[in-house]
């Protein structure tokens, strides 16, 4: 597959990844190379990665963080910053983030802020990171249970997508990443949505092309609006309520945490219903969206009490301005609308629709 040029970097795929990575290292000659992994990618991905990373005399240090969204925190960043300092990382050092969305988000933020910025490369190993988190330069960490409240937009030197890493993923992580692909269809390309919701007509060999198409869609949006002043906001469809749901289930001890994509799937169902009330999305297309999403995602029980607390968390959404919650909704599949204001009463109505 051809590489994809972003505003400041390039995304390479499969057979090209390691040759381009090694060319970059040979050309830039970093003083040291640091590889950031989590406990899972340390065991399942790192050995294969290091086998294909001939670096001559350049020192390689591996840094490991715990696995899971609950560890995407400033405290973990502090530990990584301290490790970089202890290993005498300088401004010519290179950080390679080998992992899912937590590793690429956190690692990108660490690199962007250590000594006011060192070079970094993302090597996503989860479907979610391949189609979303590793591309576009958004880096950051959570503030308590609030998603991605601290961070910067800063692209890495390159992204290497080796889809053979997906062989290491459990099924629920694959499903989580699939939610972001469905989102790309809903906000940008109805034909792509139709393909994704009829996967029974495809086989596993088609996955690489679908991942590629998702990266193309995200890159087109990000290239036009790198600072998220306008168009890039459409990538947040399903995330206004999805992030609030994810945060709520993460911070409550009596709830079982749900994965990012699972929360976004709920958010897309809720926000599609809101779209029928505010933006003219047809009931027919709402039914198509419901059927497409519920083919893959099972419903989650969200009680009336849960709904109240989830609505309270909406105040922390990053699209808000002047205390007003702003949603991305749909006029039709493939036709998003920005900066929609929604009443709490309508949100509760959407939850009733979802539950029933």
From TrEMBL:
Keyword Lyase in the entry? The reply is: yes
* Domain 3-dehydroquinate synthase C-terminal: start-end pairs: 177-320
3-dehydroquinate synthase N-terminal domain: which residues?
Answer: 63-175
Q: Indicate yes or no for the key word Lyase.
A: yes
Q: Which GO terms of the molecular function aspect are on file? A: 3-dehydroquinate synthase activity
Cite a single Pfam family from the UniProt record. Answer: DHQ_synthase
Q: Tell me the domain of life.
A: Bacteria
Coiled-coil-forming residues are: none
Q: What EC number(s) has UniProt assigned to this enzyme?
A: 4.2.3.4
Question: What are the alphabetically sorted keywords of the record?
Answer: Cobalt, Lyase, Metal-binding, NAD, Nucleotide-binding, Zinc
Q: Which cofactor does it need?
A: Co(2+); NAD(+)
| Functional summary from the UniProt entry | Catalyzes the conversion of 3-deoxy-D-arabino-heptulosonate 7-phosphate (DAHP) to dehydroquinate (DHQ).
Q: What is this protein called?
A: 3-dehydroquinate synthase
């Amino acid at each position: 597959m051809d590489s994809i040029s972003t505003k400041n970097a390039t995304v390479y795929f499969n057979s090209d990844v390691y040759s381009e990575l090694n060319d970059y290292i040979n050309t830039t000659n970093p003083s040291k190379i640091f590889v950031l992994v989590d406990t899972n990618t340390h065991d399942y991905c790192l050995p294969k990665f290091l086998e294909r990373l001939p670096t001559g005399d350049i020192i390689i240090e591996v840094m490991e963080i715990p696995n899971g969204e609950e560890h995407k925190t400033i405290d973990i960043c502090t530990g990584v910053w301290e490790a970089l300092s202890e290993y005498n990382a300088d401004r010519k050092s290179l950080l390679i983030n080998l992992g899912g969305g937590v590793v690429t988000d956190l690692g990108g933020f660490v690199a962007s802020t250590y000594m006011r910025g060192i070079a970094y490369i993302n090597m996503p190993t989860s479907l979610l990171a391949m189609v979303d988190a590793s591309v576009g330069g958004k880096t950051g960490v959570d503030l308590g249970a609030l998603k991605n409240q601290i961070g910067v937009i800063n692209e890495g030197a390159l992204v290497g997508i080796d889809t053979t890493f997906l062989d290491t993923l459990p099924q629920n992580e694959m499903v989580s990443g699939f939610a972001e692909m469905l989102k790309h269809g809903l906000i940008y390309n109805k034909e792509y949505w139709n393909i994704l919701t009829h996967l029974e007509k495809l086989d596993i060999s088609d996955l690489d092309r679908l991942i590629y198409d998702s990266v193309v869609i995200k890159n087109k949006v990000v290239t036009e609006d790198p600072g998220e002043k306008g168009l890039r906001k459409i990538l947040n469809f399903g995330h206004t309520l999805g992030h609030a749901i994810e945060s709520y289930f993460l911070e409550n001890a009596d709830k079982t945490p749900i994965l990012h994509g699972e929360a976004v799937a709920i958010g897309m169902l809720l926000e599609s219903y809101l779209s029928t009330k505010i933006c003219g999305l047809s009931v027919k297309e709402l039914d198509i969206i419901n059927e497409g999403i519920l083919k893959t995602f099972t419903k989650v029980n969200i009680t009336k009490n849960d709904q109240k607390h989830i609505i309270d968390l909406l105040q922390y959404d990053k699209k808000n301005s002047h205390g007003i919650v702003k949603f991305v909704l749909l006029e039709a599949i493939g036709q998003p609308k920005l900066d929609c204001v929604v009443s709490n009463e309508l949100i509760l109505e959407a939850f009733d629709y979802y539950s029933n």
